[in-house]
Amino acid sequence: MATAASGRAGWSAAVAPYLERGPLAALFLGVSSGFPYAMIGATLTTRLKQDGIDKSTITAFALVFLAYNLKFLWAWIVDGVRLPLIAHLGQRVSWMLVAGVLVIAAVANLAFVDPAAGVGPVVTAAILVGVAGATFDIVIDAYRIEALEPRQLGVGSGMSQYGWRIGSAGAGALALVVAARQGWTAAYLSCALLALPAMIAALVLGEPARRRAPQERRGFGAAVGAIWQPFLEFFRRRGAFLVLLFVLLHKIGDTLANLTLRLLFDDLGYTNDEIAIWDVGVGFWAFLVGIFIGGILYARMGLKRSVLLSLVLMAVSNASFAALAAAGHSNLGMAAAIGFENFASGIGGVVVVAYFSALCDLRFTAAQFALISAAASIVGRFLTGTTAGSMIEAVGYVNFYLITTVAAVPGIVLFWLMMRSGLIDSSIGSAGIAGPDDARTVAGNKPTEEGLRAETATG
Questions:
Q1: What pLDDT digit, counting tens, does each position of 394-449 carry?
Q2: What is the pTM of this model?
Q3: What is the C-alpha separation between 26 and 353, in angstroms, rounded?
Q4: Domains with residue ranges and CATH for the chain
Q5: d(CA 259, CA 388)
Q6: Nearest CA to 298 among 108, 442, 151, 122?
Q7: What is the C-alpha separation between 373 and 70, in angstroms, rounded?
Q8: What does the pLDDT look like over 187-217, one tens digit per residue?
Q9: ∠ CA 172-104-92 to the nearest 5 degrees?
Q10: Cα–Cα separations (whole angstroms), residue 241 to 74, 238, 272, 431
């Protein structure tokens, strides 16, 4: 009886953090964050391929994702500009509603574009989805970080990744199934409604408790300061440029591999239904398992060692696609490759996002996380859009995915060096430091900076 009771108590304690308001909100925010990515990613790739567009043109559409990489250029607006008429709802809530409406409109616009009639209108529509989705992401990321206490960053990042995969995979699968029966226009219109979970969550929870408004100033100089101050604060930290270099390098191989997978699947002869089952379906569940394991690793190993492990696993996962390309059309091979890649990405999604979230200063959450998240995939997306298609045609799929595996090595080495030098700890911002209003502090309920740095950043 005592053993059973202690087991139930242990299970309840493990599940309880996931049922708190902040992590639950992160789940719904993630759903809305993930679906626009699918609309201009794998789903658009499949749509263009089925309309007879050549590989080089299709991979060039990866440049649309540069809107996500450039979002730091306007993220300061989300931090500082008050919207008229609905400003009383709060800075984050009002922007969440406006950005959500923009995403719905942009996806609906893409729904009515016909690739067979010309690529130009598709490019314009995809860019609009990219810009609207990137703006939505700015608001969503800022809301998530400010709604979570430092102790919740790991759990909240995991819940956000759960939501992101539900939104991304759900939209991808829904689009494939609806498109096969009702056409692509109906498929995109159906997916547009996935913007609603984040909007509803923001309305229900209200303005995040940890939000700190930047100091209000007036005049041209103040406007310029609003743009540059978030970046100046970040780059004044010890080792900031090496931290940014790691952010730039760590995901090159992973991005190159993932943005070309649908080309591989199509050339291997997989049908839409097979892709929906093995890529979207198996990948979805493997990602969920990876997130769960990532939360355990974060708690047991600490952030630094768990991040390093996740980087190694994500590099190895690229090699699995080289094996699939060599094996040819195999449902078992596809399930194994997709399963391992998503498992590794799930782990990385928890621990890497937790670290990136902790880097932010709460006065500039939107601008700083936009900079960090934008830098995380810009190199891989640029290479995919400019060279991936021609590389595949020149060296073949097997060698291409082996190259993406090697491309992941510099990021692994740099993070290991940053661990050894102490730069991981010194780079943590106020988002990773508990304040007097947080539910849990350290050192006898005193929110010391050193204690929270140790709790959130070390292993």
A1: 888 888 888 888 888 888 999 999 888 888 777 776 666 665 555 544 333 333 33
A2: 0.70
A3: 12
A4: 20-212+219-457 (1.20.1250.20)
A5: 9
A6: 151
A7: 10
A8: 888 888 899 999 999 999 888 877 666 555 5
A9: 110
A10: 21, 8, 44, 19
